[in-house]
Design brief:
Length: 237
């Protein structure tokens, strides 16, 4: 087995990654499959933090477009990420992986509050840290949270799962069979081409802080391969 080239990574999971083929919510079998893939990396002694979205349960932006107050809709979305985080924690601990859920919105009965130094200490003790509750602020996506948290905890790379798509394409490959995948992009190319790698706030934050992003799907052993430096998906740097 090749050795990892990263010691600490941040994995960004969409809420949809937990859905599988169900139309809504969390499929326990899918959560279990994700847990097994993450465990493979954990067993390589790589420190892993996870930011999880909430789109499988609630999308604040869609609700606000239908007349709901945007701040309130976004707070509901943050709560959805906590539900996903707890489900992922349960799946990970069922396969023997020590896990902590930390939230940007305090809810002591179910998770620890996010404190940067405490999160780093958990990672150093070989615990996977699930960072839920978004950034704790409305109008910011979980993509922005992933960018922000990766810098706070000193992650070397953001591994971004994108709704089961295996990289960045010039158009949606699920709708266009002739879509072309990029192997590598600069931050400015991604922004100028409007490729929606992340929202523009998150991507600009990564660019300003030179944070590498690898966009990939989690099929096969892609997560493991990316950790060992194999060219998987699309690199944005």
């Amino acid at each position: 087995m090749a050795q990892p080239v990263y010691k600490r990574v941040l994995l960004k999971l969409s809420g949809e990654a937990l859905m599988g083929d169900v139309p809504y919510g969390i499929d326990p079998k899918v959560a279990q499959s994700l847990a097994n893939k993450i465990r493979e990396v954990y067993e390589m002694n790589v420190q892993v933090a996870i930011v999880v979205g909430g789109g499988n349960i609630w999308r604040g932006l869609q609700a606000s477009s239908k007349g709901m107050d945007r701040a309130g809709a976004d707070y509901m979305g943050m709560l959805a990420t906590v539900m996903n985080g707890l489900a992922l924690q349960d799946a990970l601990e069922s396969v023997g992986v020590m896990t902590r859920v930390m939230t940007a919105i305090e809810m002591h009965q179910v998770a620890e509050p996010y404190i940067r130094r405490r999160a780093i200490r958990h990672l150093e003790k070989n615990r996977i840290v699930i960072l839920a509750g978004g950034a704790g602020l409305p109008y910011f996506t979980t993509d922005t949270t992933a960018a922000l948290r990766s810098m706070e905890i000193g992650a070397e790379v953001i591994l971004m799962e994108k709704n089961q798509v295996d990289g960045i394409y010039d158009s949606d490959p699920r709708q266009n069979p002739n879509a072309v995948r990029f192997d590598e992009l600069t931050y400015m190319e991604a922004i100028n081409l409007g490729l929606r790698v992340m929202d523009s706030t998150a991507l600009t934050l990564c660019m300003e802080n030179k944070k590498r992003i690898i966009v990939l799907n989690l099929e096969d052993s892609n997560l493991q391969k990316a950790i060992t430096g194999e060219r998987i998906g699309t690199l944005v740097s």
